[in-house]
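ESCALATION

Customer reports they have been waiting on this structure for their group meeting. Please prioritize. Original submission:
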Amino acid sequence: MKAKSFFLSISLLIALSSCDSKAVFDEYKSVTTAWNKEDVVSFKINAPDSINTYDLYVNIRNTNTYKYNNLYLIVELNFPHGKTLKDTLEYRMTEKNGEWLGTGLASVKENKLWYKKGVVFNEDGIYNISIQHAMRENGEVNGIVNLEGITDVGFRIEKTE
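Update from on-call: job pushed to the front of the queue and completed.
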């Protein structure tokens, strides 16, 4: 019986690890019950290599308490030798009928949002990624201070196929 249990555990581990062979980096960080506009979520990434190309994604987990159909983010990519790329991005979070985009069967939806395609990490060292929300109500000048419904912010790097 122990041999059967051991074999089943090993098979499950192999199956789970082989499902995501494209991922080079995939990490999430939790935000508090409300994501404050001053809270920057950061990731430090070692350059995978300087030859291959990679696709970059921002990953967001949200609950039903998120009350908007889109999400504005400011994403900053800092290269090891000082170069900085800063983008303001908009992502759709729902269909026109209000149905959530993303995956997940429960009340938490996971969204894999495209950031950059075909990136070559041509500088050795540590790359820093910073992500913060830039949401505001329609017609308002000041941004939303505490954004509710976002539970986790992640960053993912995949080998380009």
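Sent to customer with the following note: The chain has one domain: 22-159.
Escalation resolved.
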